[in-house]
Amino acid sequence: MAELHEVDHREVAQPVMMEGRSMIILYGSETGNAQEIATELSIMARRLHFQTVVDEMDSFKLTDLLAHQLAVFVTSTSGQGELPKNTDKFWRNLRRQKLNGTNCLAKVNFSIFGLGDSSYPKFNWAARKLRVRLLQLGAHEFFRPGEGDERHDNGWVLGYPTPSVIDSIWVPWFQELQDTLAAECPLPDGVRPIPDDVQLPPRYTLRLATPMDLDHQMKMESEEEARALERKFQATKTKSAVQSHVDHPRSKDMDLEDMWERNKATFPADIARRSAAWENQNHRRVDSLDKDNIITDHPHKYLLEPRSENQTFPPPDMLNIPHALHAQVLHNIRVTPADHWQDVRKISLDVLLDRPEDFPSCAAGSTVTIYPKNYPEDAQKLIDMMGWGPDADKPLAWGVAVGKEDSPEQLHAMRPPRLYTKKAPCTLRDLLIHNLDITAIPKRNFLRELAFFTREENEKERLRQLSSFGPDQEFYDYTSRPRRTILEVLRDFPGVKIPLDRALDMFPFIRGRDFSIANGGDSIRRTDDSYVIRIELLVALVEYKTIFKKPREGLCSRYLKNLPEEIHLRLDIKLPTTGKLITDGNSCRRPLIAIATGTGIAPIRALIQDRARFFNRGPTLLFYGCRNENADYFFKKEWVGIPGLEVFPAFSRDPVSPGDQEALERYENKLDMTNGAIPGLPGLQYDAGKNYVQLQIRKQAQKIGELMRHNPLVCVCGNSGRMPSSVRDALLDCLVISKIVSNKEEANHWFDNQRNLIFWQETW
Ligand SMILES: Cc1cc2nc3c(=O)[nH]c(=O)nc-3n(C[C@H](O)[C@H](O)[C@H](O)COP(=O)(O)O)c2cc1C
Question: Name one GO molecular function term (predicted).
Fold first, then answer.
């Protein structure tokens, strides 16, 4: 039996260390679902006395797999059948050609669980691709793969998936894995699994800092700063070397290409994620727009009651995020009318650079990561509820006390990776404002752990009931459906007092949110001060009412909505992982067929501005879909007078014009079309009489066909859901209508042939 310790009234059991009994759990996750599943797995394995390591795939090297008895992969699928971004490095290493035929993973015993949505054509492709590659390299699958599917008739609440659907596959898989581990990896005599009602030690500890700790923290920070400076210096040296081509005169296009490569090299985080062969990645997607933008429900659900609370905007302390840039907010303007259902912001930021050459002048497809913060009032509420008041403003330290490194606590007392705090001294209040997501919807494991922190038997019982795996929906009815936050859950259980040293283990960390940069070309570089670049974002705020009619805002939306002008903040800029959008003298000769809905216009605007610098650019057709001409037709005035650009807007909620009415009627009457009017198009989608982009696309079939014959760049940006497939369908129809191909099947092949067109999609 594991050794038990009494802590307050709690029993804590330390897993028994056994040589060779270890499990590595690697996840790939965009919004945290796969991460949560990986955490659940690690808890189960620790209870079976496995030493576990759990982290995102990119934190591991391939050789790390060899050091563990078992490896479990958990990955969601993102984009169009892609692996999540935090697997980039790992996945690229795994696919290296030189590994082919080496059987290099023959010693690895693995299993894999995928998270996906069967409404996507490439259902669970990430997990499938990963599994195939692991098997190719000789790894042995010790347990069957699992494929979670979040698509279900009742699987959506306010446009968000209800994880119960994933659970219906995940829970049996998890339980079967647990049984397999117990049977295949039996424990020695006298050691029993740690039962669910006994708590495990924390993975990461937090304590009040001693003066020695503080000295140590400050020393570490200044060493890290020195290392960062050195890295920058090295990056500049590399760039200078690339630039010195005096002996070989080069064309402007070659210089532009080099500049693209060089500029990529100025972001060390990016360098870490990419190998020199980045071109190989060209087929990859960039789908890093703010996932919170997903609102698929009817707008009346999102109308907000005015907030009564007095809010104090979070303090602008700069976090120690490696390689992040420093920016200042210039404008934060609502661009939709006050009575429109959605608050959309145009946010302009000045990014302050160390050197002017630190940013590329053409950046279509780039994204900005913004790190939202909690409001001080919310942090105070939690401090009061937990009774942390006396310690809330004292400096903290992580892990082992300086000078006690050899103590057994060291085993589990670490600083979590990617916890980017304020500079030392950092207090609990700082963590609650800048790092811990205390208004997230709680995960099952959070409720399960809470049961250890209350003395009230009725609370314990209720929390265990809510968090147990079972056939009923109680957990989801209590958490996801009403969008109940962690703070609200804690208010419902006043007996719960989380000890300060468990804070890092209990609360999820705030994630950065990505937004597409909406400007490009000359507009990005300010001429008056070359050390500053100006970027613009177009952000749809997530605001809605819960089923209890309570107004709700996403964490990042609340932060951005109130973001004051002139405030300073940290942000990351990520260049696109594809070279498809590079605009240079050559590529801009291609025609552009751009289709965007809503805030999906942001990266398209950047691309149009990038192309505007070139006189020899090909013609552009822009199809833009929104609800109302006077409410969300963003950048309408900008399109007037741009040579070679034709815009075809589709307003789905405005009365249709007579021409559109006639087209709608024609498309609605299937018989008209199938009775030989246009042969070879039996499968038109009619969109229930709505003026959507696909109607406008079909109306311009001849024009589109003309451009299709000249190797265009075709871009689709905006909502995921049905839009991308309906647009594709309409484009295929255009190929048939303009007689490039004779039927839909041929159109499909033609469209997917990269010799005919370059296709880029960014949907979320
Ligand atoms: C923009 C986007 C693209 C997606 N693409 C796919 C896909 O191609 N195939 C699939 O099976 N699931 C797809 N999904 C579903 C996700 O895999 C699923 O929502 C999963 O639970 C996300 O887990 P995560 O939070 O760990 O990333 C997509 C979801 C989003 C939001």
Answer: FMN binding
